[in-house]
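Review box. Two proteins, two foldings.
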Amino acid sequence: MRKILVVLGIVLILGTIGALSGPRWQPVPVQHQVDSVTEDTTIGSSATTTPEGTYEVGTEVFEVELDGATVTAQVTYPIGAPEDAPGMLFMHGAGTAGHRNFTDQAQSLASAGVYVLVPAKRMDTYTLRHRDYPQMADDYMHSLEELRQWPGVDPDRVGIYGESEGAYIAAVAAADYEQVAFTVLVSAPVVPPREQAAYASDAYLRAVGAPTALLRAIPRALGVSIPGGGFEYADFDVQPYQERLEVPVLMVYGTEDLSMPVVQGASQLVADVATNGNDQVTVRYYGGANHGIRSNGDLVEGFTRDMARWTLGLPQTARADPQVAGAQPEQRYVAAPVAGPRWYADGDWLLYTLLGSFGLVLTGPAIWAVGKAVRRSSEPTMPAPLARYSAAVGLGAVAALVIFAAYLAQVAQYALNYLTNDVVVVGGYVLVLGVGVLAAWVLHSSLEAAGKALGSVEWSRLGRVIWSVTHLGAVCLLLIAAYWGVFPSFI
């Protein structure tokens, strides 16, 4: 019983150290929800517009020359439509890149009389570590000019469709380039990428029923400065650009999109453009729609119909009545700035501490192997029980971190695919806790055995070094595991 209590004490001490050693996660509930006036998303206006299916549709692929690169683009156009039709340039989010993306939207819009251009995303300047949204907006303007000059298009009626990450770029372009006549923002993050990622992580984890203790990892993972630098775009603030918008804006969200602050996004955009005296904002929420405004793989009913009417009816539809319509959205917590971890778990130190701890654990066996080869002696380097315990301590600490990392990866897979599995999510966390407790048990047993051996067994100096570095590395790994939430805490 005494040993059980001591091990539980070690576990709680580790958990408490982990809880106190980094930023806590305490999201603030949303105080004011957006009220949808009606479930009918139809764009109200006296403007007369042609519906989807009015025209046959054609496509043409060509190359667009950028500054230092060439991208392929596809224009989708209405056959037989009147001259001076509106045009819409599509900007990719993080999940798309090709000129054949957005086919469903392009076909529907073109059948109503809108020319649509989808250029491929420029990839030579777009990486995981580096993204320059103002520069990307400048690249897209080359495609916008191509569309403005396309036969049948009114150059003064060409606007932008920006989806997800593309909404950042669309806002920048609409603020900086007077050629942009309107903007459609679909599943717009509105807040900086770091805040949006933290918000999405929280929503995903709660949706799959992840243990509350797991939420501790959100600010510690997403508030960090990445080792080696880069990722400056994580703190890109689109608000100054939105505050300069003068053009009409159509904002669209799906109510099943867990990754975006669907209430906060609309409220902030309306407030931002109002600082510039702009009240031309129309907001539509589509029930059952996900991040791509799809349900069961298909675009939800009414989405392209409403987008086509709003676009064709401008400027009359710029203040479509009602301003907010569709299914009632819900946002539980505010997407807010993310606290960063302390120095020892931030930036390059995050890598140093992890690699250093693993290095210490591996140094013990390495020293033993070298010593064995040099001495060529059959005598043990340290007493047999201590050798076994040292190996077990190192393996236990490594196992605690590796199994926790595998568990996080599995939970993330379920969360990103909107799946739930209590056996994996809850049962997996119980397994993680069990491995952590076992590692603490082995550590205590090893320390206990070492204490007994100090006064009764002769150790070689080499054996003491091996024991010390192995245990130091294991303790450091267990502290790292505690930091990320492997051990429970009352705090």
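Next protein.
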Amino acid sequence: MGETATMVRRRHPLAALLLVVALVTAACGGGNGDGDNGDASGGAESTETSQPGDPIGSGADDPFVAQVASYELVAGNDQRFLAALAGNGTGKVVSFGKVDLEFFYLGTREKPVDPPQPKTKAEAAFFPVAGQTVDPAAPGPREANPSEGLGVYAAEAVRFDVPGFWGVRVKATIGGKAISANAPFEVVAESQLPFPGAPAPRTEHPIVGAAGVDPIELDSRAKDGQPVPDTNLHSTTVAAALAAGKPTVVVVSTPVYCVSRFCGPITDTAARLADRFGDKVAFVHLEVWKDFEKKLVNPAAKEWISPRNGVGDTQEPWIFLVGSDGIVKQRIDNVVGDAAFEAAVVALAAS
């Protein structure tokens, strides 16, 4: 690929859209602020917001809104599905407990399906973002202030049988009332990023101490003359680690410029895990930006998170777990809590 960097469009699913909107709404005085210690329902009037025949898409006046937070969903594969739920304009997020998911096939642009075709169902459990001290087993679901616990609802091993446009209906009981909210999403025919079961890119990239490299290209935190932090994440290349037959964790993130604000906590967690498991597993952080002001992506990051067909957005953060055989074993998009990240590393080290 040489040194040609990629121009990138910036669009982020709910990790930025819904959760950040909730934070902004709270900061601007909408709904109850973080200091409100009222009832668990947040005082919102929760009602059933959709019926089986309703269109798949949240209405502007619904008391709750849903958004799919998964980055890339691929037809014909079991994979993690992420969705988030929040009060509509209240500054509250929905946290803890479990919700039910109903999936509908909507067809394609050329051949839409009307009415939506019911497909499958799943149960999703609350999944906190990294860097928080929260009890994921706390009672819920309930409306909460963002400071009480941010996260998504994750369902494991969800399979979509055909590519195209889909919808999800998120259903829960909040404050004693049954609610639902809908969100559309797309399922692609083929993964455009490294996928479990496929060979990992043997990426060559600068490491700490490389001559002629601006430290900020290694880590966006190395600004204004600051040294590259977490050198345990920047001491080897992906190519060298895989050539040595070492299981490798590749974290692609931009701690300073992350749209969702999840990159920093995930990178911090990776550094802590590298201190603990570095003798068994190699840890590599790839900074997304070669030049943030010019919106140029690092060539190394491009190999992992830019769609190969050039269609779609470059999104972060991503974590890829690669076995000693050089095959991608697992990938984690957008949201991962500290405990889940550690469990994935432990499983990789034991494989």
